[in-house]
Amino acid sequence: MSPTPGKILIGGASGLVGSALVRAGAANRIQTLQLVRRNPAGPAEIQWNPDAPTAITDPTPLEGLTAAIHLSGANVAGHRWTPTYKRKIVNSRVNTTRALVNTFRSLRQPPPIFLCASATGIYGDRGDELLADDSKPGSGFLADICLAWEAEAAQARALGIRVVHMRFGVVLAREGGALKKMLPLFRLGLGGRLGSGRQWMNWIALNDLVRAVFHLMNSPTADGPFNLASPNPVPNAEFARALGNVLHRPTIFPAPAFALRLAFGEMADEGLLASARAIPDRLLSNGFTFDLPDLTSAFRAIL
User: Fold this and answer.
1) pLDDT score for 298
2) 3-state SS of the chain?
3) Within a domain: residue 177?
4) How far apart are CA 184 and CA 165, in angstroms?
5) Residue 70 domain-assigned (yes or no)
């Protein structure tokens, strides 16, 4: 579905997904406003401070938005979860979402739809269980963050705004995210599975993710949680093999679970070794079609 012309707001526009959404908006002649903390570089940027009592001093440019999309959040993977960094992870998601919803309250014409990022981490470590969009949340730090994040976004419903919780899988793109970090090792033939490799991975190609976001933005019935992940999740070992095959490199160097725990502590168990087999049932029933539903085809297209 082609994006509808209009005016959209993006929080977290400098990240991998946000940058891709901005490019897609420009290609479709959509006016895109971007929230920034620094001094604005032009009229497309709106300065805000989500930690201040009034996050946006003059919210007038946000009147009459077609949609608001919020993606902000400190990186979860690749960092040891110290108490300080845990607070950063939480605040960068929950507090910024609260500040944005409070801004909506000050508008005469709030956006009709608010699409806020979340993650399939909300399901916790669930083994081989198939997880639909209405499956119960799991337990753990990541699950708790996602629950708090979605609860803050849901406050916008009181303003008559439809709220979409976008539960992202691992976003695959050459220019950033997890795949960019993996590529150097795999290109050297030093890649392999993580731990047992039996844990399920939810993934989605960046191009499909951008298309899915605009599809939901344009859907008059989209509301509630949506798993934004390929309909074909794979075990981690299969993910590693597929990447190695596309790169024509062996994948015989596994990262043992104990080594990952030594390096990353709690993050290893929840961020690298946990298993969630999420299926995008609601996205598919809403009429969305994936361009790259198969992992090997996705890697070939991306690389």
Assistant:
1) 97
2) CCCCCCEEEEECCCCHHHHHHHHHHHHCCCEEEEEECCCCCCCCEEECCCCCCCCCCCCHHHCCCCEEEECCCCCCCCCCCCHHHHHHHHHHHHHHHHHHHHHHHCCCCCCCEEEEEEEHHHHCCCCCCEECCCCCCCCCHHHHHHHHHHHHHHHHHHHCCEEEEEEECEEEECCEHHHHHHHHHHHCCCCCCECCCCCEECEEEHHHHHHHHHHHHHCCCCCEEEEECCCCCEEHHHHHHHHHHHHCCCCCCCECHHHHHHHHCHHHHHHHCCCCEECCHHHHHCCCCCCCCCHHHHHHHHC
3) no
4) 33
5) yes
Written as six digits, the tokens of 233 are: 């999740």
Counted domains in the chain = 1
Rounded to the nearest 10 degrees, how much is the dihedral formed by the CA atoms of 104, 107, 112, 117? -20
CATH number of residue 156's parent domain: 3.40.50.720
Q: What is the per-residue burial (b if ≥16 Cβ within 10 Å, else e) of 92-111? A: bbbebbbbbbbbbeeeeebb
Question: What is d(CA 297, CA 35) in angstroms, rounded to the nearest whole number?
Answer: 34
Tell which residue, 235, 251, 230, has the closest CA to residue 297.
Answer: 230
Strand partners, 201: 234
Q: Would you say residue 47 lies in a domain?
A: yes
What pLDDT score does 5 carry?
64
Compute and round to an integer the Cα radius of gyration of the chain: 19
Per the structure, the complete domain to which residue 37 belongs is given by 7-172+202-229+276-291
Going by C-alpha positions, the residue among 137, 66, 62 that lies closest to residue 101 is: 62
Q: Which residues of the chain are under the pLDDT cut of 70?
A: 1-5
